[in-house]
Amino acid sequence: MIDDALVIFTPSGKRGRFALGTPVLTAARALGVDLDSVCGGRGICSKCQISPGYGEFAKHGVTVAADALSPWNSVEERYKSIRGMIDGRRLGCQAQVMGDVVIDVPPESQVHKQVIRKSATMRDMVMDPATRLLYLEVDEPDMEEPSGDFERLCKALADQWQVSDIAADLPILRRLQPALRKGGWKVTVALHKGNHDARHRVLDIWPGYHEGGLYGLAVDLGSTTIAAHLCDLADGTVLASAGVMNPQIRFGEDLMSRVSYAMMNPGGDVEMTRAVRAAINDLAVSIASEAGVAATAIYEIVFVCNPVMHHLLLGIDPVELGQAPFALATSGSISLDASDLDLAAVNLAARVYVLPCIAGHVGADCAAVALAEEPDKSKDMVLIVDVGTNAELLLGNESRVLACSSPTGPAFEGAQISSGQRAAPGAIERVEIDPATKEPRFKVIGSDLWSTDPGFAEATAASGITGICGSGIIEAVAEMRMAGLVDARGLIGSAEQTGSARMQAEGRTHAYLLHDGSAENGPRILVTQGDIRAIQLAKSALYAGARLLMDEMGIDQVDRVVLAGAFGAHISPKHAMVLGMIPDAPLSHVFSAGNAAGTGARIALCSRAARDAIEATVTRIHKVETAIEPRFQEHFVAANAIPHATAPFPELAKIVTLPEPSFNTHGSGDDGGRKRRRG
Amino acid sequence: MIDDALVIFTPSGKRGRFALGTPVLTAARALGVDLDSVCGGRGICSKCQISPGYGEFAKHGVTVAADALSPWNSVEERYKSIRGMIDGRRLGCQAQVMGDVVIDVPPESQVHKQVIRKSATMRDMVMDPATRLLYLEVDEPDMEEPSGDFERLCKALADQWQVSDIAADLPILRRLQPALRKGGWKVTVALHKGNHDARHRVLDIWPGYHEGGLYGLAVDLGSTTIAAHLCDLADGTVLASAGVMNPQIRFGEDLMSRVSYAMMNPGGDVEMTRAVRAAINDLAVSIASEAGVAATAIYEIVFVCNPVMHHLLLGIDPVELGQAPFALATSGSISLDASDLDLAAVNLAARVYVLPCIAGHVGADCAAVALAEEPDKSKDMVLIVDVGTNAELLLGNESRVLACSSPTGPAFEGAQISSGQRAAPGAIERVEIDPATKEPRFKVIGSDLWSTDPGFAEATAASGITGICGSGIIEAVAEMRMAGLVDARGLIGSAEQTGSARMQAEGRTHAYLLHDGSAENGPRILVTQGDIRAIQLAKSALYAGARLLMDEMGIDQVDRVVLAGAFGAHISPKHAMVLGMIPDAPLSHVFSAGNAAGTGARIALCSRAARDAIEATVTRIHKVETAIEPRFQEHFVAANAIPHATAPFPELAKIVTLPEPSFNTHGSGDDGGRKRRRG
């Protein structure tokens, strides 16, 4: 009589022979097959659902009989009747092996499930969260063999989950005894182990079996904007995303003015720390409310940010970051309690992970971009530009990666622009200007219609037309350049020079009337000479950073450009290249990747392995310091022209022919190339 | 030419050959000789002082020449001129081996120095503190190889002190950069590693070289009294000792009334937790002030306490400790931050260690007594009685140790006694009654004179005579029993029955006038029938606990009795035995050990090895539960008589012959044997 059977798991292909009667979950565990279970095989959680295959499997050389698994039992019947189950599925902890069988583990039953990402340029992510739920049955106290309830909980974790070295903070110890007694000595714990922690930590405890409700916040803490994703820690789903302005803006628009504020005002850094922590706390509340979950169900927060924001978040005076040698107080990743950051809205026991910084000007946000975009695994030479108030740039491939930051200022985020605003309904986000008539058309956020389309007025009546956001101003300036309204030096032509009545004199300069506002639909929206100058400064800094990395790498051309940033997905590659924001490249090789830093934060939130990986990667990224590099200033000056004073843009020339007017009537230089402070 | 020499260290006897020119400190380290150094051999700290021996050492077979060490150098000259140095001493880091030499390491130059204790019954203690000072030279930041200041500090700790795995909380990271720059990249850190910690933690940082000033608090948190010792963590010296009443007394005098308070009043446990933490915080302030140090220089606190106080200190509702099976929320040792306990007066980064509990009624205080008195290493069968509101008892020897607790109530601490007070100047602490005249004489705290001595009135004029403390009431009752004023059942005789006018009628009972107070020197002090009853209840509980342990051990006699407790040193063994507080034993084998729990706390404060040892020991101590043991009640009732209703006290009979009057005029039992609640 044959008393064992062959069990083959797909998609892993793992196989082994097991005694008849072995539960499928037990077989999976013995083979190291990734099959989830929260209740530890007690038929409660249903996480271990599997799909047995029947019939002939030529590939595996087995034929699976109809009775290869034990018949449905009462636990499965009960579960299906109450909670429902997909036809053909079984509970892995209940179904027993009775003959050779092929068992498929569906993605949702895997702990380390792959989260398929939408964008082709981004890699998939494997779930490996630091916090998970475990259901336990704890021994009752015995007066003859006295031991603490916590010690018996630890024993249950060791016996039932092979987890040892457990810690619990006082608030959990306080709740432990009532929970155990209410649950009849059965409890569910949220157990956390960060990638540097020596011990597991109990973050929460519930009487009996508890399902779901572990959330994490991935925060991209920018100089201008704080963006966050609320994710389900079980499967990585993004439940809500939200952003707020960084309230530190009132202390200075760019990083260096905040460092100055800290230097000039005793306690100024503390003030800024308090402001940003309060904003993050409020953001946690509002994003949780948007997703319909309690903020106290947030158990983990991952932060990515530039070094100045990093220090201000942690409560470290950023003064050393304002002067050479730009020494970070600490560069490694940081694990701490959310309460250390005064984040009182999230769970009392919530843990925080801050990605490592690369250098004094290249922060955890750049590390997050590297984690999301993986230049270190790229076959071709890729330039990744994370557009923000402080831009981070990465250049490299699998053999070498360079990084730098560049002080672009907040112009790309709509700040320092006369009609600038952040990306919100009513903001102009797309612009086209007819080269012949010089007449514009545009789209505003909240409507898919062009401003010249029928029904546009009605469609935008609610939001109005309130200003221009970052992607809008990039397109407006590039379109003005293509339409001959702005010359290579960035000067706006007059009505006479351009033949367009939309050119309005403003003192000694001119502005282009993009939208003639009214009482009904908002203000007059102009693109002024000051706006052009702000964009020129920003794009020059960006280009100069890229160029410096290319010098260091010894290359004149990159194979691929990735535009990232909070509004990276909204930047038109063609317009970015017309502006000369990025080095010349075939337009088909320029991609918009969206908020790669935020994506990196999300990956780190969902995966301890990713945290380990990026910590290893940052040590191999070579940082190029722009602040003290004379060539940076040279590149910056040369990049002031639109698209560039000296560099040829052959790929751009293949698709766009730029008119070359000159509106300089003063015969002298302008201030477009003036040096500016890092910001 | 011989290019190395023999170096012999005493008292360790370690020896080795070293190249000529090797500093003595280097040789000591290579051999694992315990030679202290804070500055790492830079001639700053002078902790590595050694005493070279010269001439012939027959025992070691060497002759040490006068030039066996290098001549005095400028560092030593400078140190000696500024700070002074004992003649014959050298700095181990400066003196180099130039020939065979015998080098003595004086006790004060040893890290693991032995602290010689005064009492013969107590063991010596070896310093092995969890927090120590280390002086470091940190690399300056390098823009080409960017790294955080903290990462370079960690590198210095690894390179210069072979310490890895370092953590620092945010407040330290905040202070790191200014300290490094102020100290010219030289700093001293206070580094902590508890016995369960995976990582070292920087608790404090100072620019440059910093000496001394690491203090610890050993706290014996009793139901009635909170006693603390302030110790220097470098050498274990006790700088100050102080005690305050536990403010929880207002919620209930004994433990069970506090548990009841928590059960009856929602939030009552929180209220009690707040009260006791505030009292500890205040005690830290006052004890530091008494020692003339800042409370913020307290970096470690060790707590010992009974289980109910343990839970109330930690903020855990003690309700489960009030009912079988008396389950502790946690029994293991606990390491946490002082801030977790709201102890804001001590250093922000101060760490707390709470000794493990043995069982639901046998707490960390009992563990501390075991650590101090080491019954598990005793050759003879020792009974250790820790007298307090809740008494802990240990019985055993090197082969087996039993423990139990007994609810004595606060009578031994002067509470529940009509003229009771805590031990303070003015309290009667010694009593003698002349068996013939029935006249008393007594001593009060603050004077060495008997009340019958000339000059007594003047000596006590300042304090007055204010009441009776614990040791005083024990002696008073025992003396009354010996003088025939109290019978074996505990009844006080009348003036007629005893022939003494000091017997005063109080309703249907009598009281003994110990001191006739006046306007000048305080109240009338009587020993009432109620006082006798309170002492009977307390001593019966104590005896019953001891007897229960003896039953469990299968013995009828113990070899040795140790009286411990906050006032253990003040209890007269003879009087204790007349009362029947303890089982009969040869009087020469009854010792007063002082506050053994407090001593255990001090040992744990000064030694990580001791923490490891007691954690291992408690797992081997077998707990006997008195609360549900019917024999405990039987023993308790039988022990109500003075000294005992049934047990013979042959050793006591050898030294004292007790009169056997009977003052029971009612012909019926009294209430002395009534059952009482645990407390």
TrEMBL record, chains A, B:
Residues 121-211 form the RACo linker region domain. Residues 215-374 form the RACo-like middle region domain. One of its GO terms (molecular function) is iron-sulfur cluster binding. Residues 660-679 are annotated as: Disordered. Transmembrane segments: none annotated. Signal peptide: none annotated. Residues 381-652 form the RACo C-terminal domain. Gene3D superfamilies: 3.10.20.30, 3.10.20.880, Domain of unknown function (DUF4445). PANTHER family: IRON-SULFUR CLUSTER PROTEIN (PTHR42895:SF2), IRON-SULFUR CLUSTER-BINDING PROTEIN-RELATED (PTHR42895). This is Ferredoxin.
